[in-house]
Amino acid sequence: MVLLGAAVGAPLRYVTDLLVQSRHDSVLPWGTLAVNAGGSLVLGAAAAALPDQQWALALVGTGFCGALTTFSTFGFETVRLAQDGWVKASLANVVLGVGLSLAACALGWWVAAAVV
């Protein structure tokens, strides 16, 4: 299940990151922010909607969301921004990345819990 979810999540991350980033002339890594927030939204919804479905959580949560989101790239891009002299952008990336991802996860949970 993990492998199947990752087979969809990883290419989607790559394509989404490229598409989002190509639409912005900014030092902020909007593509990474988008995939991390989107994956957090899906993970929150899956956790609320499928609490007893271990196979589905492995497929969606661990496989798909695990491959779609990327904490390592978020960390690397944050450090790179700071090293390149974009300290304010680096701090903004941390605040936006963590804040959007937590808010998206909570929203996904809330919506799924209300529907299920």
Distance between the termini: 23 Å
Beta percentage is under 5%
> What is the helix tally?
5
Unreliable segments of 5+ consecutive residues:
none
- How many beta strands in the DSSP annotation? 0
- Structural class of the helix and strand makeup? mainly alpha
Query: What is the percent of helical residues?
Result: over 70%
Instruction: Report the principal-axis shape.
Output: globular
What letter string, H or E per element, gives the SSE order?
HHHHH
Average of pLDDT: 97
Overall radius of gyration: 15 Å
Q: Main sheet, how many strands, which sense, barrel?
A: none
Give a summary of the structure in a few sentences.
The chain is mostly helical.
Question: What is the topological layout?
Answer:
Blueprint (H helix, E strand, L loop, with lengths): L1 H21 L7 H20 L4 H15 L2 H13 L3 H29 L1
Helix pairs in contact: 1-2, 1-3, 2-3, 2-5, 4-5
Describe the structure.
Helix content is 84%, strand content 0%. The longest helix is centred in the C-terminal third of the chain and has 29 residues, at 87-115. The model has no long low-confidence stretch (mean pLDDT 97). Helix 2 (30-49) packs antiparallel against helix 3 (54-68). It is globular and about 45 Å long. It has helices at 2-22, 30-49, 54-68, 71-83, 87-115. By secondary structure, it is mostly helical.
